[in-house]
Amino acid sequence: MSRHRILVVDDEHLIRWSLEQNLRKQGYEVSTAASGEEALKLLREETPDLMLLDVQLPGINGMDVLRKVKETEEDIIVIMVTALGVLETAVKAMRLGAYDYINKPFNLDELAIVIRKALETSELKQEVAHLRSEQSRQFGIANMVGESQHMKNVLSMVEKVAKSDASTVLIQGESGTGKELIAKAIHYESARAGKPFMAINCAAVPETLLESELMGHEKGSFTDAKSQKKGLFEVAHGGTVFLDEIGDMELGMQAKLLRVLEERSFRRIGGTKDIQVDVRIVSATNKDLLKAIDEKTFRNDLYYRIQVIPIHIPPLRERPEDILPLTLHFIEHFNREFGKSVKGISKIAEKFLLEYNWPGNTRELRNILERAIILESEETLLLEHLPQEIVTRTGGGTGGPLNFRLPPEGVDIEDVERELIRQALESAQGNQSKAAKTLRLGIDAFRYRMKKFGFL
User: Fold this and answer.
1) Of 213, 203, 217, 207, nearest in space to 247 by CA
2) β-strands 344-345, 380-381: how paired?
3) More exposed terminus of the chain, fewer Cβ within 10 Å: N or C?
4) What range defines the domain where residue 106 resides?
5) Which of 131, 162, 183 is the last residue of a domain?
6) Could you tell me if 236 and 275 are in contact, meaning their C-beta atoms sit under 8 angstroms apart?
7) Based on the domain organization, do 286 and 330 belong to the same domain?
8) Average pLDDT in the 219-233 region?
9) How far is CA 270 from CA 210, 214, 221, 229, 266, in A?
10) Of 99, 82, 101, 102, which is closest to residue 48 (Cα–Cα)?
């Protein structure tokens, strides 16, 4: 890590010299300026991480230098230094963007602590900004894969919702379809992207704990409440709260959530003060909420409050056009993650992937490819690298088993050969050597026929 650079701006030579010597001993790179004009000139040549800026300077005073610095280099930390000790000046400096304000004469040890804390705070802010930038890149619409018209419609809706002020969104779809990814895309494509995205699985948390997680609690409000705790709604102020599996939320908690949605405020457990919040609430479920309403397990009024903007994600079996693009996307992803160099997937394996029913949807496809890439070392994923259920639950071809009694109208001999190759591969669970032996063929002859009929 490079050393931090500090610029000392003071018209007193002795102060500049003593600060320079002291800061260099602490490992900082230090430059000095005797006036505001000299400081601004140095800033044009090299940007420091922190400035110690005297208020009383000849020519351009410290306040004017601070204002000019913040107009062009907002990230520079500025600590104001003065012998005046006037509170009004300190307040004005803080409003202009100064990090802190110290009076002369100052203690060098105390100044060292202030500088260290300022730089640590700055580094933390930079890390948070970098993390949020990475999350925006990772979870933005541009990184989402969808070639089918179904997914194009979903992503178009996501883009519109993200740019809107819609406060509630309901995402419905089977388990594994990517509901949380859609929720994150809505957040990171919106003006709320710089604020927190907080997620919770309503099915995984008991009702008594769920209220505390969402709304927080005051110290002493119950036996284990040894300190005050902010809930997700409060922490996510300005951002997004994702309520996964909202269909499993207990009725009592549903009533409390409805109040939050209607009033945009809540009280911590044990609290007496209403806390106002500005959050977008994105809910998700794999349940039929209308059926749950009929069964009296979900509130009718809450349903119509959360589904102002409904988004339905179709299961993977209804959008086969997405299977191969997703496969290539996951191969690239896991190549990077595990340092592998898998180039693609064989034709016969593609056929089985396309014809499989995918009860676990995109999550199942992702897990299958992750396992295959971890365990195998070949450049091409073969049928034998896929789990047994992919082979046993898939026909692997468009035709059924052929009847070897010659029909009156005749039959194309190549259809017979193609079907035999398919059945042999299915019986051998994709193992080409075993399939070749089943048909009494050498491996080269078998692979020739696989290529001929598009299985390789």
Assistant:
1) 203
2) parallel
3) N
4) 5-131
5) 131
6) no
7) no
8) 88
9) 15, 14, 5, 11, 12
10) 99
Query: Which SS3 state, helix, strand or coil, does residue 231 take?
Result: coil
User: Residue 309 corresponds to which tokens in the numbers above?
Assistant: 């903007």
Per the listing, tokens 């006036």 go with: 35
Q: How many residues does the chain have?
A: 456
Token pair recorded at residue 448: 């020739």
Q: Specify which of 66-70, 136-140, 169-173, 193-197 reaches the highest per-range mean pLDDT.
A: 169-173
Peptide linkage before 320 cis (omega within 30 of 0): no
Nearest to 267 by CA among 301, 233, 237: 233
HSE-up of 192 (CA within 13 Å, CB side)? 26
Please state the separation of Cα 34 from the chain's center in Å.
47
Q: Is 7 within 8 Å of 51 (Cβ atoms)?
A: yes
In 3-state terms, what secondary structure has residue 199? strand
Report the C-alpha gap between 236 and 228 in whole angstroms: 17
First to last CA, the chain: 50
Closest CA to 235 of 202, 266, 206, 190: 266
Residues 132/193, Cβ–Cβ less than 8 Å: yes
156/203 same-domain check: yes
Sign of the Cα torsion 414, 416, 418, 420 reads: negative
- Quickly state the pLDDT bin for 396 (edges 50, 70, 90): very low
Q: What is the mean pLDDT of the chain?
A: 90
Q: How far apart are CA 214 and CA 256, in angstroms?
A: 10
Look at residues 314, 344, 360 and tell me which one is the last residue of a structural domain. 314
SS3 250: coil
Q: Distance between CA atoms of 344 and 328, rounded to whole angstroms?
A: 7
CA distance 426 to 176: 27
Prior bond to 105 cis, omega within 30?
yes
CATH number of the domain to which 74 belongs: 3.40.50.2300
Q: Quick one: 220 and 272 in the same domain?
A: yes
Neighbours of 335 (CB within 10 A): 14
- What's the alpha-carbon Rg for the chain, to the nearest Å? 32
Q: What is the CATH number of the domain that holds 151?
A: 3.40.50.300
Using DSSP, state whether 268 is helix, strand or coil: coil
Residue 276, beta-bridge partner list: 265
Asked if 259 and 267 touch (Cβ cutoff 8 Å), the reply is no
Q: Spell out the alpha helix ranges (H) of 315-401.
A: 323-338, 347-355, 361-375, 388-392
pTM attached to this predicted model: 0.71
Torsional class of 103: left (φ above 0), alpha (ψ -120 to 50), beta (otherwise): beta
How many domains does the structure of the chain reveal?
3
For residues 378 and 444, state if they share a domain.
Answer: yes
DSSP state at residue 237? T
Please say if the pLDDT value at position 400 is more than 50.
no
